[in-house]
Amino acid sequence: MRGGTSKGVFFRLKDLPEACQSPGEARDKLLLRVIGSPDPYQKQIDGMGGATSSTSKTVILAEPTQPDHDVDYLFGQVSIDKPFVDWSGNCGNLTAAVGAFAINSGFVAKDRIPENGTCTVRIWQANIKKTIVAHVPITNGEVQETGDFELDGVTFPAAEVQVEFMDPADGEGSMFPTGNLVDDLEVPGEGTLKATMINAGIPTIFVNAGDIGYKGTELQDDINSDPAALARFETIRAHGAVKMGLIQNIEEAANRQHTPKVAFVAKPSDYVSSSGKSIGAEDVDVLVRALSMGKLHHAMMGTAAVAIATASAVPGTLVNLAAGGGDRTHVTFGHPSGTLRVGAEAKEVDGQWTATKAIMSRSARVLMEGWVRVPGDSI
């Protein structure tokens, strides 16, 4: 399925081989072989993956384990060139497809699906233990996929799926793990960088583009064709992960590629997107570029968009300051493929910031369904 600007292979838990219905080596080996990893050529020719972080994804859906939910959603980010599946976070883009899959697969009760209108799918995101609500359009009793909703980074228009991330901050700790809206992050080779480290949607480290020699208008090739630049970002990410308490030492970052994300922000500026579309400074509130699985993302991860929206809603963060400062409930940001508008509600309680909800629009559709062949000696 395509969900937002990502693509993944979706499974019902009950359809997996019995040995793969529980977390562990057998499950990981199966999903690696399905996607075509690890691939030293980084093409995933012998699998279903698309050789980018946006297309090397797997989803497992199961009966809900929580009351008042329709489905459990487990996300696995499959490494392209290394033999591991990262289960540490969510994929916000594919969440839009989870709603449709849940309806099509019978997870949602028939009496909750209107003949025409919108079906509200209550999703339990099992990786991060959060509720997400997808509002899926229904026509003649079936999921509507076609429409005129355009999403930068997706080639064709489709039906709009509104996704609400409820209480998106980490329930086990502060939304700002260090206790600060802006930290001094010491990074070998970079010096001391100003950084906003937030856990909302997905743990994300934001730095100022200008502090690391960028403008915020960069496209994928500007970063991904530069091995030294990628190494710099990985170093920033690793040291930020330690400071956020996600890992104990730098070496652990290599086996935790999916989280945290690292991103850089800048004030609005004119640029030309990857599709050739002109983006004016007046079209956006802030520019954001983010890396996923060691490469600059072609658009924006959905979970990182939640982090952007939430950080922009808190006065004083680097994202908020780059967007002009002050109180805001939504932000339009520029990314390599174009622009995206996202909203968030944040409030300060007893000196601690918390987010109540983040919301964005995505689209989704089934690309194919059937059998995926996996060699018997893979698990």
From TrEMBL:
Domain of life (superkingdom): Bacteria
Annotated Pfam families: PrpF
Gene Ontology BP term (one): propionate catabolic process, 2-methylcitrate cycle
UniProt KW keywords: Isomerase
InterPro entries: PrpF, PrpF-like
Family affiliation: Belongs to the PrpF family.
PANTHER family for this protein: ACONITATE ISOMERASE-RELATED (PTHR43709), DUF453 DOMAIN PROTEIN (AFU_ORTHOLOGUE AFUA_6G00360) (PTHR43709:SF2)
Protein's name according to its UniProt entry: AcnD-accessory protein PrpF
Taxonomic placement: Bacteria, Pseudomonadati, Pseudomonadota, Gammaproteobacteria, Pseudomonadales
